[in-house]
Amino acid sequence: MTRRKILFVTTDQQRYDTLGCNGGNVARTPVVDGLAAQGVRYERAHPQSVVCMPSRSTIITGQHPSTHGVWMNGVALPTDAPSVATVLHDHGYRTALIGKPHFEPFLDPFARFAENRFAREGLTGLHRGFEHFESATHGALGPLHYARWLAANHPEAVAMFYPVLDMTLEVNAAGGGETGAPQVHDNAIPREWYHTDWVADRTISWLDSLGADDDWFCWMSFPDPHHPWDPPASEIGRVDWRDVPLPAGYIDDPARREAILDAKPRHWRAWYDGRLVSNYEAPMAWIPATLTSNQVREVNARNAVECELIDEAIGRVLAAIALRGWSDDVDVIFTTDHGELQGDFGLLFKGPYHVDGLMRLPLVWRPAPSSGGGPATVTRPVGLVDLAPTFCKIAGVTAPDWMEGRSLPTDDADADRRGFERVLTEWDSELFGVGVHLRTITRDGWVCTTYQPGYSHDGTEGELYNLADDPLQLHNRWSDPSLTTLRGNLLADLWDHQPQMHAPLRRVEAPV
Amino acid sequence: MPEEILVNDRVQRRFQYRITASIFNYHRGTIDVLDLGDDTCVVVYSTDADPRTMALTIGSATAGALDELKRLMDTVVAGATP
Question: What's the gap in Å between the CA of A508 and the closest CA on chain B?
């Protein structure tokens, strides 16, 4: 008897509301919407970190960042760290990761990290439990498999991408498109050479190499819709930015926007004004206060195009799976590593800002039809930390003790029965003298964030939002005297469940 | 990564080099070995680099080199112990 096969699909930096099934009305995502209609759609799935490396390390280990120790971008996950892929591989699963890994720093001029040496040395596995490992990121530079494939086969396309970093190796602030929005760029690359289709092509190729009776776990990891927003120019006409509505979280009136920012901890307004860029993930030279409503529309349009290309690529892979006769036995899980501000509060990109734009993630689990699960919606809080134990459950393997999450609930009754009450999210960064440290708990319809002492904060600051009354997190109620007891209870619960930081603290090896 | 040796002074126990790759606007790496007079020494590996992102990257590589050097020296010492 064959076991259930697992197609795990991730994107990078995709908001909850970019999917049609979650209320999105810009991108057309019929494939993922269809999976959601047949499976379980999660309305309150949070990452344990809102940046790539810690979040992806949580996915593969099933541990919170404090436990696996990748506490910020630029900190490497050791190659012998726990890996759910190793667990599945040891239990006879064929395993692959195709696309963006980012468990180790990309900026690696001395080729110190295995992830970056793999393509250079012509290897495709075994790595972190993946017997097949083909890597890609947002562009055509660097040592990963996609970059080497493009340089070897279509060298004229390498320079067509937006340069993610500028001449000083900071995140590029240069604008493009019709509005001059940062990180928007017209990319002349043909669609079939773009990394989204490459990831799908390589996934289909690997699946085709498998035996009919093989059990397999495939992590298909798309680099988009993470900025730069430079999808193939041939596809831009799908979404006219002039027709794109402004996001609900974009506050058009600058005075009101700034008053809302002023009620949040001070690094919010300092970033908006261009006085402090507290993390590497946002362009140093870009001042959010200069962002125009048309730039927000154009960013959202390009982002939607990238989401559509991903949806179509997933459709191609599912069609290939159907051709192999596997459809009834394949579980599909779709999610992302973290969100994107994408115009909320007049901001773009990401950073130490624990609000829905960055924390509320698309998560869909379509169980294998042969397993008999019906459609459901889960409103209780879950986390990416729950994915690794979910893969184990699907495979019929006992989750190892080192995993901190639990297999995802299949409906709210299951969630209540198994005590899915809270989800935790951490932020730590120490970069060029600027330290920021946040701990967040989401439970009972509230999001509560406490700030530890750092460059901008003295340890007394925080944020408290009622998700039912204030779904856009416009009104910070941290200092509301009527909520003192509630705030205290949430913080007590947070500290009761927050793992201790890994000791010794892992070294920051690079900015990203 | 192309490099150029600037100083290799056995008397001062100083080694200094620079990376000449264009990714660096400026780079100086200096390794000093300070004799503590009790059959031990301190190795000081200092780096200046611009842009700052490369300073961060090379800083961690330098720290890794010192860790490895210490491991190597400890292994040699341990191996020499009767």
Answer: 7
The structural domains of chain B, with segments of one domain joined by +, span 3-80
- Per DSSP, the three-state class of B42 is strand
Q: Which residue of A has its CA nearest to B26?
A: A168
Q: Is A463 left (phi over 0), alpha (psi -120 to 50) or beta?
A: beta
Mutation target among B60, B66, B68 for the A interface, most CBs of A within 10 A: B60
Q: Which residues of chain A have pLDDT under 70?
A: 1-2
The partner residues of A95 in beta bridges, in order of sequence, read: A217
> Residue type at A26?
V
Nearest by Cα to A110 from A512, A511, A378, A510 = A510
Q: Is A390 exposed, middle or buried (0-12, 13-18, 19+ CB in 10 A)?
A: buried
- Using the structure block, give the residue that is written with the tokens 């067509």: A160
Residue B2 and residue B20: Cα distance in Å, rounded?
6
Helix (H, G, I), strand (E, B) or coil at A419: coil
The confidence score (pLDDT) of residue A110 equals 87
In chain B, which residue's Cα lies nearest the Cα of A168? B51
Q: Are A350 and A52 in contact (CB under 8 A)?
A: no
Rounded to the nearest angstrom, the minimum Cα separation between B82 and chain A is: 33
**ipTM value for the complex:** 0.85
Contacts of A346 (CB under 8 A, 6+ apart): A250, A251, A254, A257, A261, A272, A288, A289, A291
The C-alpha torsion from A392 through A398 and A402 to A407, rounded to 10°, is: 50
CATH fit for domain A5-162+182-246+297-422, picks 2.40.50.140, 1.10.3470.10, 3.40.720.10, 3.40.50.2000? 3.40.720.10
Peptide bond into A82 cis (omega under 30): no
Q: Report the mean per-residue pLDDT for chain A.
A: 97
Helix axes A387-395, A52-61, angle to 10 degrees: 30
Q: Do A432 and B52 touch (CB under 8 A)?
A: yes
